[in-house]
Amino acid sequence: MILIQGKGVSKGVEKGPIYFFQRHDNTVTKQTVDDLEAEKARLAAAQEQSMQQLADLAEKCRAEAGDESAILFETHAMFVEDDDYVECIQETMEEEHCNAEYAVQVAGEQFAAMFAAMDDAYMRARAADIRDVTQRILNNLMGIVEGGIDSEDPVILCADDLAPSETVQLDKSKILGFVTQGGSGNSHTAILARTMGIPAICGAGSALKAEYSGRTAYIDGETGEMVLDPDDITLAKFRDKHQKQKELKELLQTMKGQEDVTLDGRKMMVYCNIGSPDDVAAVLANDGQGIGLFRSEFLYLAANDYPTEDEQFEAYKTVAAAMDGKRVVIRTLDIGADKQVDYFNLNKEENPAMGLRAIRICLNRPEVFRTQLRALYRASAYGKVAIMFPMITSVWEVKECRRACKSVMDELKAEGIPFNPDTEIGIMIETPASIMMAPELAKLVDFFSVGTNDLTQYTLACDRQCNDLGKFFDPHHPAVLRALKMAADAAHAAGIWIGICGELGADLSLLHTFLAIGIDELSVTPSAVLPLRAEIRKSIAQTCTLELLYNS
Ligand code: PEP
Ligand code: MG
Question: What is the pLDDT of residues 143-165, one digit of tens each?
Fold first, then answer.
């Protein structure tokens, strides 16, 4: 038996084949080729492979969701064969005697720019399709598997670590669980696993070896154990836990449709955190009462270039409409620190967690901010959208954000584009400065949402990405809990609501403390909604105390 001990960061037990994540260099460089005919044949093969993949996808979509959803892939197939597009690729190859990858990239950029400049909104949105088709042909030329997992069956995905820009590309339907050599409980792989409701282990170190690829692993996301060739006792324990997990899931289903209210009538809003429109399915399946944090930066991380206003609008509108009148809090771009996006060309920083990130980037790049705000306000006409700004430290930042919102609303009004002028505006409380300034900040906004991942990091001076900090990174620290109370008191004095959207919100051992503090909303990973509801419905708010705040 081989036992690999890491840190459990997303609960659950699973069994499956180990698959090591392959990192590919997908940068396209221009190369001169001697044998142009052979290069053209390579291109033709990649085009044919793309056509086959698109036909398969269209067929799958038609079977699962009907004709309409298959149209997208049929349109993509038309682009692959489009005369002008193909001619452009071939001309570049002939004129420059270059490799097919370079010529495809040039044609993709030219055509995407052409569509993006069109007046008609529908045609402008086709720029994204061209980029998608171009990426597909490039992947086939470079032998890169879409979704990153070259396996028919679902796998236990193993890696040294996964960057947010890598996790967004993964084919989630093929993942049973994650195990990484590095990483931490607050890393985005852990957050993704919790959203998907599957087990994850991080910090497995060098004991996790690439040579284990293909072997069957048993993983436990609670204890942090990964086992190969288990002995009889371990196997029996694993099977028992798997069965209990199944039974608990069934029991929790009875919580669906129930109200989030304590025995003495205190209501709590139990919302969900998501990273993409695809995650809404998990929110609905777990009966989340709203979305308390849509991390919009994942749209930027998944793209190779700035997502256009129309692309963003479509994503926000899809989520707002699917939630059907329930509140959807969309956070503006929060990149920098652990979430790096190449095309932003940010300078390398010594200390990125304290550098140019989140709202600081938006306030420094008004055009990027304006594009996102326009998309958000346009989407506000299709549901109950709320806008939230991350990493606030100062009153002037919020005033500047509000000015940007006002200017976007004036533009939309002048253009006759519908939007909700009463769209709620909130801020994240995730820095000690925002706690100190909470009374003043509360007067400027409609709600607070506490990002406890960052608040813990900045309050305790502990890097949230660093796995070695162990007990020093303690979100239960009285300093963090007292900070929460200060923010809640300031919010309530100003008559606004306050929620928690950091990972701590799902920590059942703190629920009574949150009730005593007066937290109004908990936004958690979708799989945590029903366990939280079960606990809320067993609680008596009036008997909850602030004991842990003074437990120093
Ligand atoms: C947080 O900091 O708690 C938070 C919710 O934001 P993120 O984890 O995306 O930084
Ligand atoms: Mg944060």
Answer: 888 778 888 899 999 999 888 77
Asked whether the beta carbons of 269 and 499 are under 8 A apart, the reply is yes
Cα of 432 to ligand 2 centre, how many Å?
Answer: 13
Q: Which one of the listed residues 362, 501, 512, 544 is annotated catalytic?
A: 501
Tell me how far apart the alpha carbons of residues 148 and 168 are, in angstroms, rounded to a whole number.
10
Closest CA to 427 of 483, 528, 358: 358
Q: Which listed ligand is nearest to 273 at the C-alpha? A: 1
Give catalytic status of residue 188 as yes or no: yes
Which tops the pLDDT comparison, 301 or 399?
399
Helix axes 121-142, 309-322, angle to 10 degrees: 100
Higher pLDDT, 341 or 548: 548
Give CA–CA dist 524/243, Å, rounded: 25
Average pLDDT over residues 167-186: 88
Nearest CA to ligand 1 atom 4: 451
Is 0.85 surpassed by the pTM of this model? no
The DSSP symbol for 354 reads G
Asked whether the beta carbons of 180 and 162 are under 8 A apart, the reply is yes
Q: Is the torsion defined by CA of 199, 203, 207, 212 positive or negative?
A: positive
Look up 462 and say whether it is catalytic. Answer: no
pLDDT digits (tens, 9 = 90+) for 500-517: 999 999 999 999 999 999
236, burial (CB in 10 Å: exposed 0-12, middle 13-18, buried 19+):
exposed
Residues with Cβ within 8 Å of 89's Cβ and at least 6 positions away in sequence, in order, are 43, 100, 103, 104, 106, 107
Q: Is the dihedral of CA 442, 444, 441, 367 positive or negative?
A: positive
List b or e across 489-519, with b for residues whose CB sees 16 or more CB atoms inside 10 angstroms: bbbeebebbbbbbbbbbbbeebbbbbbbbbb
Backbone Cα Rg of the chain: 25
d(CA 184, CA 188): 9
Query: Which is the closest atom of ligand 1 to the Cα of 293?
Result: 5
Q: How remote is the C-alpha of 261 from its chain's centroid? A: 29
**Ligand 1 within 6 A of 297 CB?**
no
Q: How far is the CA of 334 from the centre of ligand 2 (A)?
A: 8
- Residue 66's pLDDT band (cuts 50, 70, 90): confident
Nearest CA-CA partner of 391 in 343, 307, 461, 450? 450
Nearest atom in ligand 1 to the alpha carbon of residue 188 is 8
Question: Contact at 8 Å (CB) between 284 and 530?
Answer: no
